[in-house]
Amino acid sequence: MNPVRIQRLAGNPDLPLPERATDGSAGYDVRSADPDFVLAPGERRLVGTGLAFAVPPGFEIQVRPRSGMALRYGVTIPNSPGTIDSDYRGELRVIIQNGGTQPVPIARGERIAQLVFARYEAPALLEVPSLDDTQRGAGGFGSTGS
Predict the structure, then answer these.
(1) Dihedral class, residue 12 (left if φ above 0, else alpha if ψ from -120 to 50, else beta)
(2) Which member of 15, 16, 54, 118 lies 3.0 to 4.6 Å from 5 by CB, making a disulfide possible if both were Cys?
(3) Measured on CA atoms in the order 47, 84, 67, 99, is the torsion positive or negative?
(4) In this structure, which topology does domain 5-9+25-119 adopt according to CATH?
(5) Cα separation of 59 and 118, whole Å?
């Protein structure tokens, strides 16, 4: 994969680019570019990152919660994984939600999510009058066991 081009948007020279915590990390931590705020219990908020990406064709960025924030504070991403498409060139913004019981302060520059770059396929879709039978059939939601 070629390097992914990132544009640091105006007013954000102090924020580091997304980075992996270890060589084995799949996700790149991304930070809040918003002024400090407090996320109330149950509150959802759209948070800017101050960055725009040129994602290569055939790839997407999956936006995922950070496990530490989810465990410690109940902060998650309600549409996880969010998708950033290869033709989007605006600011990457992240929807975060406080699923905990206490207000959570979020400082500018705090890591709020992780980004995973993933290939995808875009097959042609073909409508047919019926589908082939399988052993499982239409069974779902626990039909193969607990």
Answers:
(1) alpha
(2) 54
(3) positive
(4) Deoxyuridine 5'-Triphosphate Nucleotidohydrolase; Chain A (2.70.40)
(5) 5
Positive or negative, the Cα torsion across 65, 44, 15, 120?
Answer: positive
Task: Name the residue among 46, 39, 116, 47 with its Cα closest to residue 70.
Answer: 39
Q: Please give the distance of CA 127 from its chain centroid, rounded to a whole number.
A: 31
Q: pTM higher than 0.90 for the full model?
A: no
Percent of the chain at pLDDT above 90?
A: 89
Extents of the domains making up the chain: 5-9+25-119
